[in-house]
Amino acid sequence: MNARGLREPRRKLHVKTYGCQMNVYDSERMTALLAPLGYAPTADLDDADMVLLNTCHIREKAAEKVYSELGRIRLVKEARRAKGRDTILAVAGCVAQAEGEEVLRRAPFVDMVFGPQTYHRLPEMVARLHRRSGAVLDTAFPEESKFDHMPRSSPVDGPTAFLTIQEGCDKFCTFCVVPYTRGAEFSRPVAQVAAEARALAQQGAREVILLGQNVNAYHGVDDETGQEVGLGELIRRLAGTDGLDRLRYTTSYPAEVDDALIAAHAEIPALMPFLHLPVQSGSDRVLSAMNRRHDRVFYLDLVERLRRARPDLGLSSDFIVGFPGESDKDFQETLDLVRRVEFIQAYSFKYSPRPGTPAAAMDLQVPEDEKDARLTELQDLLNVQQTAFNAACIGRRLPVLLERPGRHPGQLVGRSPYMQAVHVDASEDKLGQIIDLEITRAGANSLGARPLVPARPPAVTEVAARHAPEASL
Ligand code: SAH
Ligand code: F3S
Known about the structure:
Helix content: 25-40%
Shape: globular
CATH architecture of the largest domain: Alpha-Beta Horseshoe
Bound molecules: S-adenosyl-L-homocysteine, FE3-S4 cluster
Strand order of the largest sheet: 2-1-3-4-5-6
Strand content: 15-25%
Distance between the termini: 70 Å
Low-confidence stretches: 1-8, 462-473
Oligomer: single chain
Structural class: alpha/beta
Number of domains: 3
């Protein structure tokens, strides 16, 4: 590696993001961090002077995807080198954190490997790489917070923006790698979060999605009082931000939903009536083996309390089938819980043993074909519920935040309060607006709304009058 790249005024950065929304947020931040070094984003892998993979370690499939992508990028890197062009290949995110050395062993052509807590050191790592040969590996959990050293916010792309308020997890569910890859729970101070929300709104965001691996464990310090503030109170304060019309948060841990957060759902109109509340299983035996701190009665009661506060609340969840020792009876209890709650959307996964987690060493691993059968049955039920909710929206008027152009010309796509994608024929000047739309069609995954026809075109006589010289007084 030589210093040639550093002197070049313009270099290209190709970022590929896997996994959760926090990775999306982190990728935006890393892109902003690299801009002062002359890196401009490109969608074209072959043209990239630096390729950054922001990886996910949550399930085996997610991690393995990274290694196959690395194999593909190696060929691109070699082809570029043959033309005298260097490519920095960087692996960030949770695979990097969990398997740092392993990444370098399996893919020795990788130049940088670094975990989620050291992103702020990225410019320094790039400089180090230019100075010396050999790969750079940084998977520390540093004393300083990366949030104090990263750009305040990245340019807003569309009217919806992510804002990380909390990171890490101390819950240690026995199946999950997050506490190991993201580290201990950390909450950003209230003033920092509020400043970032204001900056996002000034750049055009109308909706902010507050992110955290355990977002409702938020307890940020209020610098003025020295007191800690919970998520309910934080939402209350952010709701007053000029230009922000919608707030959401994800992902929540059921046992930590407190009264203040429930009250926020009742009292703050900007807080959207949609909540992702992962339950994982409907069986107390399995929940206990998972080290979740709720049981089914607690969860069902929590849902009832939330719905009392906000009757139109739409619920979503995460499920794992085939956790070690899960019997058919346990699985039936999951189906029963789903029938009772009626989710409007959900994610469900087959249990994937993750190295180093307690569940991976448990006896009674469930055979793969059994997991497949349970997943299909659960997803069929969840799909029926989601489709029914969507169909029930036909004929309703819903406020839709128009986010981006659709696949067809003249079409825009937006989000309903319940996170449904809504397609509508409308002109691009409506992008970024929240418009009441009448829902006319519903599918399993999206809604359609009555077209927004442009204002009545002027009648021919009016046009003629406007162009007539005597009319131009
Ligand atoms: N609170 C976290 C949840 C982390 S992982 C968040 O930021 O969203 C997201 C989901 O992946 C979990 O809720 C769980 O359903 C699933 N998951 C985690 N570990 C898994 C594993 N080992 N096998 C299968 N699914 C898993
Ligand atoms: Fe993972 Fe459980 Fe935390 S699912 S992120 S250990 S709450």
